[in-house]
Design a protein that fits this description.
heterodimer; A: two-stranded antiparallel ribbon; 2 strands; 1% strand; B: six-stranded mixed beta sheet; 15 helices; 21 strands; disordered N terminus; membrane (chain A); transmembrane (chain A); MetI-like_sf (chain A); BPD_transp_1_N (chain A)
Chain lengths: 331, 510
């Protein structure tokens, strides 16, 4: 029961946070100079002032700021995220069309970085702990350092040059082969091939973080008395690692996983740009450059809901991994 | 012999195939009457058509109109339309559509066509289903240059009449008369156009489909072309720095033709309302301090040429006999001394032009050049929205812009210099605040003049004045390279280049 009331309290707080995010973003965006009308007029190379004025009226930019905000909030409460005049489509439709692509990319990058990262971390810690194959520890840590230090866009371009241009193994951009008309299994394979490079690019940094974090955390646990006891009792090394060390060492990794899910939206903007991935990150970037206020706020709203949800999940996972953690007492 | 040549050419045009190109940035919509961004023009010009198109010398060619006639008093323009033209939904295209498009739709919606229509068009009539008659209020010679597809696209009356044009659901599924129909738009990924089997030119178009891919990163676009995933690169699709390398790939063709209608010309905008740039000698000094040849060679990687004045060299009425501001720092410093202005007194606010790395370099180069002759310069970074806002509000001392010429100085050039066009809030007007009665008069007379000789004389005089006055700081004419795989034929055939309908483009079978 306790966990349910904990979740309820967290959801209530989360709603307040999201409201704050929307209001703050609304004010921040309007602080930036320029508005969609002037940008659209500029792109149309128009010198007709009536045109700009007409656009402003159309966007409701002639109304006072608080009225625009009130109208927007009222709409959001009715699940109406507004209309993107720029794209001539409702904001909700635009986001719904692009969100799955981003979730797929982020989800796979998350699984990839967490899975591979923890595995590498365990291998490194184990090789150091057992004193055998110490070179493996050094190799993994060097690799992690390299990925940790390489900027995302740089890595992306290197991967494209190597695997797409030189070797020709993988497609360089897009989500599927356009015009191939693939269906069923062939389509899945096609999308999978398109996913490899963006997922690796987006995941490598966090993979490095997890590897280092897992290793450090495991080595710390390995030095503790209960491990010494287990070793003294003659428990096999593999079992010690799995049962005793890893389980205790995973908590900081989970904390960081929660942070990663929140941060990945930012990385997605870059990855989606380089790989022409039709996701929400680029939608956000374009909306910002074009001062498409309603669309931008819509994306902010959806991403903040995502971040809040991930944090909530992290807390629940905490408890599952370590039942000693009592959320009720903390709340 | 001539006949044989024609037959051979006809045989060589093989039907079939998919052409893949790039559209960047992704257009907001494809309804050409409502949106006029470059990417929209590029894609939608295959769906929609205008009455005329224009050759490389900017002379009109038939498109939806097969013939036209101008009355001796220059006030009545009669167009004879192609027979048997159908909209993509099967309804016939008639003179009533033309009247609706020009007199109702574009008069209300099109930011560039609208000023011309409102100022000059008295009436539009359809005496027969294939005849349209425009009557002007006063003579306006460039009227015949205004019928290009991106300026006056024909829109279907039966879909738009009596609706709110902006929110009509049909805007999402454009219906035109062009050789290609709208098929699919996966936002953020690609746009697919497919062959119109009922196209009014028999046997055309040759291509089955055109796919426009959305690839937001310039380096990735270069890779796409290198890999052969796309067969056409339009000017601006990749950075100038990549063009040399891509051009050298085997089987790649390049041309800088097809921009004659637009003749993009870049300039500095001085704020001429206040010191130091209210003084003509200071502006002349700046022109002498800028090594424009250096800019073209090193910042544009050779993709351009030094501009001589406000009219691009590809445009009618260009005159090269104007004062020349050669690169000469001594002269520049002497002019500053002569002007008596203390140019170092307050820093000059130079607002960067936020459209890519070449412009960033140009901003840095300008700062350095000006500081060599005694200015202090604050380079203000900004994004597109910020730039439009500052420039429209005259909140700058110096900035850059470039402009399209639209085939006639009256359409593309006059708007930057007429004192009636000093309008706060818009970035593509007389933002520098240049006021010269003589110039206003000359532009007005030249727009109404009938004889080409007289127009040439007036525009030559204008170019003299505008260059001598440094009304704007003319920098360079931008050259855009179209790169394509060698088996793509007939890509650039007219003065509007890749904004042409592509009805004669074909892919040669190996």
């Amino acid at each position: 029961m306790k966990i349910l009331s904990f979740i309820a309290a967290r959801v209530a707080k989360a709603l307040l946070v999201i409201l704050g995010v929307v209001v703050l973003n609304f004010l921040l965006i309007h602080l930036a100079p320029g508005d969609p009308a002037s940008i659209m007029a500029g792109e149309a190379a128009s010198s007709d002032p009536a045109f700009v004025e007409q656009l402003r009226q159309q966007f409701g930019l002639d109304k006072p700021l608080w009225q625009q905000l009130a109208l927007y909030l009222k709409g959001v409460l009715q699940l109406d995220l507004g209309y993107s005049y720029r794209n001539q489509l409702p904001v909700l439709d635009l986001i719904a069309e692009r969100l799955p692509a981003t979730l797929l990319l982020m989800g796979l990058a998350f699984v990839f970085s967490l899975g591979v990262g923890v595995l590498l971390g365990v291998l490194a810690a184990q090789s150091r702990f057992t004193g055998r194959r110490r070179w493996l520890d050094s190799a993994i840590m060097s690799l992690a350092l390299l990925f940790y230090a390489t900027p995302l866009f740089w890595l992306s371009i290197l991967l494209v040059i190597l695997f797409s241009v030189t070797l020709g193994w993988l497609p360089a951009f897009g989500m599927s082969s356009v015009g191939a008309g693939l269906t069923g299994w062939a389509h899945v394979q096609d999308v999978a091939a398109h996913l490899v490079l963006p997922v690796v690019s987006l995941g490598c940094f966090f993979m490095a973080v997890y590897a280092r974090l897992t290793r450090a955390s495991m080595l710390e646990v390995m030095g503790m008395d209960f491990i010494k006891t287990a070793r003294a009792k003659g428990v096999p090394a593999g079992q010690i690692i799995r049962r005793h060390v890893l389980r205790n060492a995973l908590l900081p990794v989970v904390t960081f996983a929660g942070i990663q899910l929140g941060q990945m939206a930012g990385g997605a903007v870059l990855t989606e740009t380089v790989f022409g991935w039709p996701g929400i990150g680029r939608l956000m970037f374009d909306a910002l450059m074009q001062r498409d206020y309603q669309l931008l706020l819509g994306v902010f709203l959806v991403t903040s809901i995502m971040v809040v949800t991930f944090n909530l999940l992290t807390d629940v996972v905490y408890r599952l991994i370590d039942p000693r953690i009592d959320h009720g007492a903390a709340a | 012999m001539g006949l044989m040549g024609v037959t051979c050419a006809a045989q060589a045009q093989t039907a079939g195939g998919v052409l893949t190109a790039i559209v960047q940035p992704e257009p907001p919509m494809l309804m050409l009457g409502l949106n006029q961004q470059g990417p929209t023009q590029y894609v939608a010009s295959k769906i929609y058509q205008g009455l005329l198109t224009y050759d490389a010398q900017l002379k009109p060619l038939p498109s939806l109109a097969k013939a036209w006639n101008i009355s001796p008093d220059n006030l009545t323009y009669t167009f004879e339309l192609q027979p048997g033209v159908k909209w993509h939904d099967g309804k016939p295209f008639t003179a009533a559509d033309v009247v609706f498009s020009v007199d109702k739709f574009l008069r209300e919606m099109h930011p560039r066509a609208r000023p011309v229509i409102n100022k000059y068009l008295e009436s539009a009539k359809a005496p027969s289903p294939t005849t349209v008659e425009f009557k002007l209020k006063e003579p306006f010679s460039p009227f015949l240059s205004a019928f290009v597809v991106d300026n006056m696209p024909m829109v279907p009356k039966h879909i738009y009449e009596g609706t709110d044009f902006r929110t009509n659901p049909a805007n999402q599924t454009p219906i035109g008369t062009g050789p290609f129909k709208f098929k699919e738009w996966k936002k953020g990924s690609h746009i697919v156009l497919t062959k119109n089997p009922d196209y009014w030119k028999k046997g055309q178009p040759y291509l089955d489909e055109i796919v426009f891919r959305v690839i937001p990163d310039a380096a990735s676009r270069a890779v796409a072309f290198e890999k052969g995933d796309v067969q056409v690169l339009r000017g601006g699709d990749v950075d100038n720095v990549d063009i040399k390398r891509l051009k050298a790939l085997p089987g790649v063709e390049s041309t800088t033709k097809g921009w004659e209608m637009y003749g993009p010309l870049a300039f500095m905008i001085f704020n001429e309302r206040k010191p130091p740039f209210d003084n003509v000698k200071v502006r002349q000094a700046v022109m002498h301090a800028m090594n424009r040849k250096f800019i073209v060679d090193n910042i544009l990687f050779g993709m351009g040429k030094v501009a001589t004045g406000p009219i691009a060299s590809s445009t009618m009425f260009y005159d090269k006999n104007v004062p020349n501001f050669e690169f000469n720092l001594k002269k520049a410093r002497a002019l500053i001394a002569e002007s008596g202005v203390n140019v170092g007194a307050t820093p000059v606010k130079l607002v960067a032009f936020p459209y890519g790395s070449s412009w960033d370099r140009l901003g840095e180069y300008t700062k350095q050049s000006l500081e060599q002759i005694g200015f202090k310069v604050d380079l203000v970074a900004t994004d597109a929205g910020g730039w439009a806002k500052r420039t429209g509000d005259f909140d700058f001392d110096l900035t850059f812009n470039f402009t399209y010429q639209f085939g006639d100085p009256a359409l593309g050039v006059a708007r930057h210099f007429m004192s009636t066009n000093i309008i706060k809030g818009s970035p593509f007007v007389n933002n520098q605040g240049y006021v010269n009665k003589k110039v206003d008069e000359l532009f007005t007379t030249a727009a109404a003049a009938r004889q080409p000789d007289l127009r040439q004389k007036l525009y030559s005089e204008l170019q003299q004045i505008l260059v001598q006055d440094v009304a704007l700081g003319y920098l360079f004419e931008l050259e855009y390279a179209t790169l394509s795989r060698g088996n793509v034929k007939n890509l650039v055939t007219t003065g509007i280049g890749l904004n042409e309908s592509f009805d004669s483009v074909y892919i040669q079978k190996k």
